[in-house]
Write a structure and sequence with these properties.
Elements lengths: L2 H6 L5 E4 L7 H10 L3 E5 L4 E6 L3 H21 L2 E4 L5 E2 L5 E2 L3 E5 H5 L3 H5 L8 E5 L6 H13 L4 E6 L4 E5 L6 E4 L3 E3 L8 E3 L5
Parallel strand pairs: 8-9
Antiparallel strand pairs: 1-3, 2-3, 4-7, 5-6, 7-8, 9-10, 10-11, 12-13
Length: about 200
């Protein structure tokens, strides 16, 4: 059994305490490059979080979502969209890769060329996580709260299995939508509507 198959059958995500190793940003980046078939993140507490790559249906759904965000971002032009391979370094020290993200252009342009090239040292303005069959809902809900606590203005957690979307905004309680056909991004992303008919 290969590593990917073994991880797919394991309860995921797996969190390893690597505080004693003293992992640097450079070492973590190399670890990510050496293990491209895995999704690696670091928590604010120094845990290495390991999840397998997406399955076919999850990848198809996420490509659809990223395409919608990117299409809107191009027409709106006030910000830039990022896919699930982008690593963001949050203010609390966590290193996270949301499935889809959007950053206001003024914040992106304030970064140096080196910061834009490496792991991005900011929390996106908008983040989206898509739950796959191996994802723990509670783990993803905690991630969404972390994004909001670190500066995100809008977060969406999509659970295709239950056909639910959880909305996160600063200073507001989590909102759960049952079987929505679309979700609007106002006021942060005026005019953006995420169509969900192909996600369900």
């Amino acid at each position: 059994m290969d590593r990917q198959s073994l991880l797919s059958e394991t309860s995921l995500p797996v969190a390893l305490d690597i505080n004693s190793v003293g992992i640097t940003d450079e070492l973590f980046q190399q670890l990510c490059q050496d293990n491209e078939d895995l999704r690696l993140e670091l928590s604010a507490y120094g845990e290495l979080i390991i999840t397998p790559g997406a399955g076919g249906n999850t990848g198809l759904r996420n490509a659809n979502i990223t395409c919608q965000v990117t299409s809107w971002a191009r027409s709106d032009a006030t910000g830039l969209s990022f896919d699930s391979s982008t690593m963001f370094c949050l203010p609390n020290g966590a290193k996270r890769s949301p499935d889809t993200a959007w950053v206001r252009r003024v914040r992106w342009n304030a970064l140096t060329e080196e910061e834009q090239e490496g792991f991005v040292p900011l929390c996106p303005d908008f983040v989206l996580e898509l739950r796959s069959t191996t994802d723990s809902l509670m783990f993803l809900q905690d991630k969404m709260q972390e994004y909001i606590a670190n500066g995100a203005h809008l977060g969406l957690l999509i659970d295709p299995a239950s056909r639910q979307v959880y909305l996160y905004r600063p200073n507001q309680t989590e909102e759960c939508l049952d079987d929505p056909q679309s979700v609007k991004g106002d006021p942060l992303m005026p005019g953006f509507v995420l169509e969900l008919k192909d996600i369900w």
